[in-house]
Predict the structure.
Amino acid sequence: MTASFTSPAEFREVMDRLFAIMSEDPEMGPALRDADVPQRFEFEDLDMVMNVRAALPGEPGNLYWEWTDEVDWKPKVRMKMSSEIANRYFQGKENVALAIARRRIKTGGDIKAALELIPITRPVYAHYREIIRAEYPHLEV
């Protein structure tokens, strides 16, 4: 079953909300900040790029992200996937290791560091499913 975003703007809106949840969560946020794994996500079907890093002292939240490659940090991990795979992953319906093996997610850099983040971010799946169910039912898988 496929579930598609209605537009790049909708995708960005949903991902911004999702990353805000991770950043502000009292357990996930500090753990992700302390892990300090800068990441670059490329969503090839939408021609969009998101760079994420730990928030610096004085910045709000625990994560900081920009929708551009024009950032002053280098990613430790690079991931390329479709928006559909990202949607499936954050609903807990896409196994990252299997998706990498089957090339649904293409990776570069320190993949071990990225895989170590999965247990930290796993609680966000339920939050994401709640948002999708309530506000974006066309994205449910």
Notes: The two ends are 6 Å apart (CA to CA). The helical segments are 8-24, 28-35, 83-90, 96-101, 111-121, 124-135. The first strand starts at residue 39 and ends at 43. The chain has a mean pLDDT of 95.
